[in-house]
Request: fold
Amino acid sequence: MARELIVALDGMGGDFGPEVVVAGAEIAHVRHPEVRFVIFGDETKIKAELTKSPRVAGACEVVHTEVSISMDDKPTQALRRGRKTSSMWMAIEAVKEGKAQVAVSAGNTGALMAMATLCLRTMPAIQRPAIAALWPTMRGESVVLDMGATIGPDAEQLVQFAVMGEAYARVLYGMDKPTVGLLNIGEEEVKGTEIVKGAAQILRSDATGLNFYGFVEGDDIGKGTVDVVVTDGFTGNVALKTAEGTARQIAEYLRAAIQRSFFSKIGYFFAQSAFRTLREKLDPRSANGGLFLGLNGLVVKSHGGTDAIGFASAIDVAVDVAAADLVRKISTEMEVFAKRAEENSAEGESAETGATVS
Reply:
């Protein structure tokens, strides 16, 4: 019999807390009726919301916590105040202790990353974790990382992101050799920072064994030019927020255009199905949920300002990665990568020694 899949939820995280978390779990439970939830937070507030969501009420356990982490808490403040006792920490700790397979929080990103890293620790071969998002493209979806966990990574860390992202894509999409691209300001080898060019040099070698496409530019993300796009957390987060804002801007333009005249409204009436499809594709909520990669456990970050539909999408991501046993597979990939890099380094040293002797 398959092991029951349990998702730990930070019931107090995000701008709206239990209202969105419980309603989102209700939507997700319709799609995943086999999943059970453990919700951490203020028991009174959570149970009040559960009365409105009878489906999930019968498939969850509520664990009361006195402390919740606010959206403007600094990571150091959150650790001092909420370590061991907050809804965020306890949701992550449930994963560490094997009481849940994955944790989901819409809370403070910096605090969530700090707590997840401290509680779960990074994998042996990983220096820094990364947030990976599934990005809608013209070809389907691409994995994009980092979305904000690591600002200013070095070349080796970018390469580690590439290895983790490639493993994530293989698990999710069933691909043998996903293509990996490095986000840059141009496709030419002479462009970019020394860190980006250094990472590209490693990725072009045999040290990783990845299917490295080369440099990609910002417009390649939406085109789906590659299956995995690798960048630093600063650039990735700016790209994500820009894309979300642009999607909302286009949706507002369309809404205004439809309401502009009588004939526009008639045209909309006959093209409702097409407009509905477009609206769904432009809806950032459908792609909500960033996975923390590189930790000894699964944690999914939801946007703090999302609604129930968006939070349900984050739970969808959590269910998919938990069912795929992603942590073990990425750990295996990193071990293979570390061994291959060590062998390549040893071969390079042997070649240099031979050249010196001759």
Notes: The chain has a mean pLDDT of 87. The longest helix spans residues 326-357. The chain has 14 helices and eleven strands. The longest strand covers residues 130-137.
